[in-house]
Write a structure and sequence with these properties.
There is one protein chain. The protein is mostly beta strands. The chain contains 8 helices and 32 strands. It starts with 17 loop residues before the first strand and ends with a strand.
Length: about 625
């Protein structure tokens, strides 16, 4: 039995498999398949019926024993690439249809394939006849078929497409390729690709249309082809993708119009999208997890947003965001543009004013930051930040430390470097892939500021389908800090988005007098969850069971594995375009100091969370 190799597979996964039973005629393949089908197994085995061109024998049923096809029908399937394999045995063709395999795997069933081994068919020679513009060796290195390799007719068609693309991507238009397959002996084949080379085409001029607001220089900067250069098809398509990524066009078209032999005009047609966006959101939030015997307090929350895209025709974006609730007020203005003085760096300026009532304190903060981001790969981003902020600390519910006393009103000058890798299939509702990031911050007493500390925060997310419609998620976070850390800069945890076995901020060290959380300089959290369907036909509604472990530590040196708390629970998730709405019940099942708490006072009722947004 063989499982197809996949990046996201592990040995032992209970996912549907492709089971291949192969051997010469008469060795007992049908006996093995019948035995597998009689066994009780989850997921069940499904036999994929093979196609053949031979005549039906007595007792055989079309669609059960084989799919009996005319030779023309079989060849049409093979030429369309709809056969996983095809072999000629004793003058008749046999092949395995892709459609049958797809249907079985989509139903969550193991797909059994019976392969009648025939003689090995080999490519004896390969010739690129009529190729003069390029060295044949360069093209032969690109195609699928290789000399002394297996002969497979669908690969010949793929070779034709690769050769055509090679010419197009080198500015050649009008090339025609005709494949010829000849015999070079028993089960040996000679492949000849007869090539009628087209004409090298240069771009005579580049015309841009539809840009009513966008500056011409913004569009030209994204074009990877130049006037007078070859009409490289791959670069033309890359130019189209780059223009689309600017996010200011609702449609981009690249039309090649021949003007004379060897010359063409490239017409870039864009349709500018809506430049103004305004939104208003009204909802509620519940930070605290409370026992189910008490009343859950929901606080109203309002969010307003205005975005102006393509400011001054430079593909820049100006946004204004305001948030208001009785515990949180925030206003943010930001400016983003795709380049910095023509360099491939994405700069952004951010200014903000905020006030937030936390469990143990209240802070007012205003600040500004300058960010530069650089995509190193399509999934890898490097970000550098320089920021300044002013923080006023008030309503402190825990005893003042020397640092808190000195830094009730303090300024911070901070630099930070962050790296993020995103291989998820969807940013809002991921089902597979992973995300990893690390952020390092360094605050120094520069330009009259007081803060002097460093912080590093690691984050890793992992998503994997277990069986159809059932998925596993993992989120791991580690935070480390050292230096003169005032309360607002410490790590806090507890609540629906960190550790669901505690109320908001209540994980970790607490003041012995007030019982309020003090935060810490070290944080360790791991959250795991399994999601599964709840009702057939309601694909946006899912259930989940979860397990959380972690804690906050006053100092890095205080970390002990035995001091980690644990919680488990279950919940419902309703999928929306911006993330799920979550209802969760959680129980704290391990507290390091549980033995010191009288049994009658220990909390046994679950904590309830209703949250909008994805924890993972």
């Amino acid at each position: 039995m063989n499982r197809p190799a996949r990046e996201d597979s592990f040995v032992g996964d209970p996912q549907p498999m492709l089971v291949v039973i192969s051997g010469p005629s008469g060795v007992g393949k049908d006996t093995i398949i019948a035995a597998l089908q009689r066994r009780s197994h989850e997921p069940p085995y499904h036999y994929v019926v093979t196609c053949t061109t031979r005549a039906r024998r007595p007792g055989e049923i079309d669609g059960v024993s084989y799919n009996f096809l005319a030779t023309e029908q079989f060849q049409a399937l093979r030429d369309a690439g709809e056969l996983l394999e095809a072999n000629e045995v004793h003058g008749h063709w046999y092949g395995t249809p892709r459609a049958g395999v797809r249907q079985a795997l989509a139903k969550g069933q193991h797909a059994i394939l019976k392969i009648d081994e025939g003689p090995r068919q080999t490519v004896a020679s390969m010739t690129l006849a009529g190729m003069h513009l390029f060295p044949p060796e360069a093209v032969l290195a690109e195609i699928v078929s290789v000399r002394d390799g297996p002969y497979f007719p669908p690969n010949v068609q793929r070779d034709v497409g690769i050769i055509e693309s090679y010419y197009l991507n080198h500015g050649i238009r009008g090339t025609r390729i005709t494949p010829r397959v000849g015999s070079a002996g028993e089960n040996l084949f000679a492949l000849t690709y007869e090539i009628e080379e087209g004409t090298p085409v240069a771009i005579r001029s580049i015309l841009v249309a539809g840009n009513r607001l966008t500056r011409l220089g913004v569009i030209n900067r994204e074009l990877q082809v130049k006037k007078g250069g070859p009409a490289d098809f791959s670069l033309i398509q890359d130019s189209k993708r780059r223009l689309e990524r600017l996010g200011i066009f609702s449609e981009v078209r690249m039309d090649e119009i021949q003007t004379e032999p060897g010359q063409e005009n490239l017409v870039v047609s864009v349709q500018e999208g809506e430049a103004n966006y305004a939104g208003l959101g009204l909802g509620f939030e519940s930070r605290d997890a409370v026992p189910s015997s008490e009343q859950v307090q929901f606080r109203p929350r309002a969010t307003g947003e205005y975005i102006r895209s393509n400011v001054l025709g430079m593909a820049a974006q100006l946004s204004l965001v305001g948030q208001y609730s009785d515990i949180e007020r925030r206003a943010i203005v930001s400016w983003n543009q795709p380049y910095l003085f023509g360099a491939a760096l994405r700069p952004s300026l951010l200014g903000w004013i905020e006030k937030e009532d936390r469990t143990s304190f209240t802070f007012d903060r205003r600040g500004a930051s300058f960010n530069l981001s650089r995509p190193l790969l399509p999934y890898l981003v490097l970000i550098g930040t320089l920021s300044w902020s002013r923080t006023d600390l008030s309503n402190l519910q825990i005893p003042e430390s020397d640092i808190d006393r000195r830094l009730q009103h303090y300024s911070t000058t901070m630099t930070s470097i962050s790296v993020a890798i995103d291989r998820r299939d969807d940013s809002f509702n991921p089902e597979k892939g992973y995300f990893a990031s690390v952020v390092s911050e360094l605050a120094k007493p520069l330009f009259g500021t007081e803060s002097d500390y460093w912080k590093t925060f690691f984050k890793f997310q992992y998503f994997k389908p277990v069986v159809p419609q059932v998925g596993f998620s993992l989120l791991a976070r580690v935070g480390l800090a050292q230096g003169q850390i005032s309360v607002p800069e410490r790590f806090f945890a507890g609540g629906s988005n960190s550790f669901r076995g505690r109320s908001f901020d209540y994980l970790g060290p607490k003041d012995s007098t007030t019982g309020k959380p003090e935060g810490g300089r070290a944080l360790f959290l791991v959250n795991t969850e399994v999601r599964f369907p709840v009702l057939p036909g309601f694909k946006d509604l899912a259930g989940g069971v979860f397990f959380d472990v972690g804690n906050v530590f006053r100092y890095i040196s205080d970390f002990r594995v035995g001091d980690l708390e644990a919680a488990c629970g279950l919940g419902l998730r309703y999928r929306t375009p911006l993330g799920p709405v979550r209802l969760e019940l959680a129980w704290n099942i391990h507290t390091p100091l549980a033995d010191l708490v009288p049994p009658q006072t220990r909390k046994k009722t679950p904590y309830i969370f209703i949250t909008i947004g994805n924890m993972f």
